[in-house]
Write a structure and sequence with these properties.
single chain; alpha+beta; Lipocalin; Glutaredoxin; 3 domains; eight-stranded antiparallel beta barrel; 5 helices
């Protein structure tokens, strides 16, 4: 009986979706860099209930973009989370315009084009002649460490390549690309990240001549050696409680300008997760999705969460609008506080959480026990694009919270 009911529900949902989506088309989009190392991604255009929506595609992720406006010969696409938008002129099946991205300074503008195509990268060197599936120890050549501090988790099926690269400061989320001949190419775009990785595959266990491009101008080099036991080295990015400190003390306004303190009654006798985040941060997007779901399912167990936001600007209204995107997109029920301190402020830790050593990574989290004492400082969040690393994070997070909830 249970099996029959589940099958019936799935069938009905599939039928409803088929009725809702009237048409669909695939696009290849390109962010054009001045150096010619263009960043390519794909999206699907769908018509739902007489409205156009897009799904930006990166590997397993389909990011819904539902703020799409057509006017005369132009289209304006507002990204769902970040201060980011695409604007273009339409000429049949070709779009030409710009990607607009908010920053801590002036807006960043990059040329953007799109054509109707399901291809991400062409197989210029023919079918794949190597398989890079597995874990790789990655060394970025501008990293001061002498050893590899990052890893790549890659999955390959035929010519298709997906995966992610995990660094001491976070992961590059969902990457998608190809292996053609003995070359690999992977890219990702989520409205904040716009990245491209290229490299040569040498002898099947070494990746060399790697190039990495990000945003408008950044470029770097990388190499990798296949190593199933490789780990991310996080010693230099760790955060600690300062000697003699035991508890946090802070008070900041929420998005309705109400002051919220960690000493408020709602946090008393609760296990509390203090999320350190920013609305500009793609990994914070993934963590917020996880924490929002967790809170929805566990808030009645004596768990509270509070987010401290470090934004691009000290302008409260600008930060509020960006943070509201997070709140609405991920149905966040816990308070998000605007610290009023920018992410670029060299004294951001001293001005907000002087009880801990320097905040080096976003997102990070601080877990408090029922008595308000700091029990764990966490800066190793790796999101759903990283496969088993995300599963390990969730398991360890749950074990930590469950242990603290059992304490008197």
């Amino acid at each position: 009986m249970i099996t029959f009911i589940i099958v019936t529900i799935v069938t009905c949902v599939s039928f409803s979706y088929a009725q809702e989506v009237k048409q669909s088309s695939s696009w290849q989009a390109t962010i054009h860099r001045a150096d010619g190392n263009n960043i390519v991604f794909n999206f699907e255009e769908e018509t739902r209930k007489n409205r156009t929506v897009f799904f930006i595609k990166n590997a397993a992720e389909r990011m819904l973009v539902d703020s799409v406006t057509f006017k005369n010969d132009s289209v304006f696409i507002k990204m769902p989370v970040f201060e980011s938008a695409l604007k273009a002129k339409i000429d049949k099946d070709t779009w030409k315009g710009i990607w607009i991205k908010g920053t801590s300074g002036a807006e960043q503008l990059l040329p953007f084009t799109a054509i109707k195509s399901a291809i991400r990268f062409p197989l210029d060197d023919g079918p794949a002649k190597a398989n890079v599936k597995g874990r790789w120890a990655v060394k970025f050549l501008d990293d001061t460490a002498t050893e590899a501090t990052s890893i790549a988790e890659l999955w390959q099926q035929g010519n298709k390549l997906t995966g992610s690269i995990l660094t001491p400061t976070g992961d590059y989320r969902y990457l998608e690309g190809i292996v053609t001949g003995t070359k690999l190419m992977m890219s990702g775009f989520d409205g904040s990240h716009a990245v491209l990785f290229t490299a040569d595959i040498i002898y099947g266990n070494t990746i060399g001549n790697g190039k990495f491009y990000s945003g408008a101008n950044y470029s770097g080099e990388w190499t990798a050696i296949k190593n199933p036991k490789a780990t991310v080295k996080q010693d230099e990015t760790a955060m600690y409680l300062k000697p003699g400190e035991e508890k946090l003390s802070f008070k900041f306004p929420d998005l309705d300008s109400n002051l919220v303190s960690i000493k408020d009654d709602r946090f008393k006798d609760k296990v509390v997760i203090v999320q350190l985040m920013g609305s500009w941060c793609p990994n914070c997007m993934d963590e917020t999705q996880f924490l929002s779901d967790y809170y929805s399912n566990n808030k009645n167990r004596g768990v509270e969460i509070v987010a401290l936001a470090y934004e691009y600007s000290t302008d409260f209204e600008r930060s509020k609008q960006s943070l509201l995107k997070f709140k609405r997109r991920f149905n966040v029920e816990y308070p998000i506080l605007n610290t009023g301190v920018t992410v670029s402020d060299s004294l951001r830790t001293e001005r907000t959480l002087p009880q801990v050593t320097r905040i080096k990574v976003f997102p990070s989290s601080i877990i408090l026990d029922k008595k308000g004492r700091v029990r764990k400082l966490e800066n190793s969040f790796y999101g759903p694009g990283t496969g088993e690393h995300y599963d390990i994070y969730k398991r360890e997070f749950n074990e930590t919270i469950d242990t603290l909830l059992k304490e008197e």
